[in-house]
Design brief:
mainly alpha; Growth Hormone, Chain: A; 2 domains; about 0% strand
Length: about 425
């Protein structure tokens, strides 16, 4: 329904509103699928395999989606990127109606409007504060005010959930160490990947001059890595332990990101192939994180557990773009030193455009006949990408260590552990 409404969109504001509506709809779908897996597959061993399939399909969707979108934009209007959803949704609705059993909590919590407002407002202010700090500097008090205000609202959200008998989100589940470990793995992995992959995609389209569809194809090695590991992760976890498999997977993804940093001067796409395969192979183990979370949660709490897991992926994606993207942007501006070009006669308005992004800098350099600006901007962007990759590698290593510390050695995904 929302995708069809794009035909009536006449402004950027209406398109943004439709995207927000699609995001809200997606936020209802993904946790539901996870909670249904927890309910339908009562055998823990079967459940872990079902979660592995879920993880592979979700990972493929994340890669194939931009690829299909880029292909559509090559030949059709941008409306096609929305309308392509319609036939897939129709098939999913009919298949779900015919195949899926009813699965619901007999005593679902009441909708808490106050908690909803607190969570949304808190995240908006928090991310806004991070973006402002990167753009206006660490000495900008207004940005710190946004950041602190966002954190305060999020704390109030948690406190409200803790003091209600039927919370919007059952944060008490974090008292279980395995559940907390799986949650942290989901959050840190999505945070690291969202930031790094955003910058890699930008490099492919700006420095390597790939078209959107070719850039999408160029990211397929990551999907290949996930396909090679995710199907085998549950069986391996049953043999050597879920803790070891998940920690090793996270560490492998971290190594892939570290290689990007160690490469230094990025001049060819082929330099990214091995790191992308390693990242994909490592994140293929995230099915084990889902199995750990669901296996340590009572059936009646499956909905809350699934909502928390999906929220961690979504929050991680937002923070990855905001935090690592902002770090890379700050380094880009610092290395570019656009003031030196202004001193040589570059128009201040053009300098402002160049200072905002690599795309702007390359455009200004071409128009002003300044190859030195283009070269320095490309080098500055690569340095920002390298530092963001290093930060991602550190996050993945920290996540692996926390999983190893929090998940009991004897945790068995082939049985219920709650």
């Amino acid at each position: 329904m929302v995708s069809v409404l794009v035909l009536l969109a006449k402004s950027s504001v209406s398109v943004i509103a439709l995207r927000a509506a699609l995001g809200a709809a997606g936020a209802m779908i993904m946790p539901t699928t996870l909670s249904m897996i927890r309910t339908i597959f009562t055998d823990p061993s079967e459940r872990s395999r079902a979660l592995a399939v879920w993880s592979v399909v979700a990972g493929l969707g994340a890669i194939v989606g931009p690829l299909v979108g880029g292909g559509l934009l090559e030949f059709f209007s941008w409306h096609a990127a929305f309308l392509i959803n319609v036939p897939f949704v129709l098939v999913a609705v009919v298949a779900g109606w015919k195949l899926l059993p009813e699965a619901c909590n007999p005593k679902p919590p009441r909708w808490d409007l106050v908690a909803t407002v607190l969570s949304i407002a808190g995240m908006v202010l928090f991310v806004w504060g991070i973006k402002n700090l990167a753009k206006k500097g660490l000495d900008h008090l207004g940005s710190w005010g946004l950041l602190v205000g966002g954190l305060a609202l999020l704390v109030l959200f948690v406190l409200r959930c803790l003091t209600r008998d039927d919370p919007l989100l059952d944060v008490r589940l974090f008292r279980r160490k395995p559940f907390t470990a799986g949650t942290l793995a989901a959050l840190m992995t999505s945070l690291a990947m969202a930031g790094v992959l955003l910058l890699v995609a930008q490099w492919l389209q700006t420095v390597a001059n790939f078209t959107p569809i070719v850039a999408g194809v160029a990211l397929l090695p990551m999907a290949l890595g996930g396909l090679l590991t995710a199907p085998f992760a549950p069986g391996l976890a049953e043999r050597i332990g879920a803790r070891l498999v998940l920690a090793a997977g996270l560490a492998t993804a971290g190594v892939g990101m570290l290689i990007i940093r160690l490469l230094g001067d990025l001049t060819s796409y082929w330099q990214f192939v091995v790191p992308l395969v390693l990242v994909g192979a490592g994140t293929g183990a995230l099915a084990i994180a889902s199995a750990i979370m669901m296996g340590s949660t009572p059936t009646e709490k499956a909905g809350s557990a699934a909502a928390i897991e999906e929220a961690m992926y979504d929050v991680g994606n937002v923070l990855g773009v905001a935090v690592l993207g902002s770090v890379a942007a700050a380094l880009y501006r610092s290395d570019l030193d656009i003031g030196s070009f202004v001193a040589k006669g570059l128009d201040p308005n053009a300098a402002s455009i160049a200072n905002e992004s690599l795309v702007g800098a390359l455009s200004v350099a071409d128009q002003a006949g300044l190859p030195e600006l283009a070269s320095r901007a490309s080098d500055a962007f690569v340095d920002g990408l390298g530092q963001a990759s290093l930060a991602g590698a550190i996050l993945m290593g920290l996540s692996a260590a926390l999983v190893f510390l929090l998940v009991p050695k004897g945790f068995d995904i082939a049985r219920n552990n709650h």
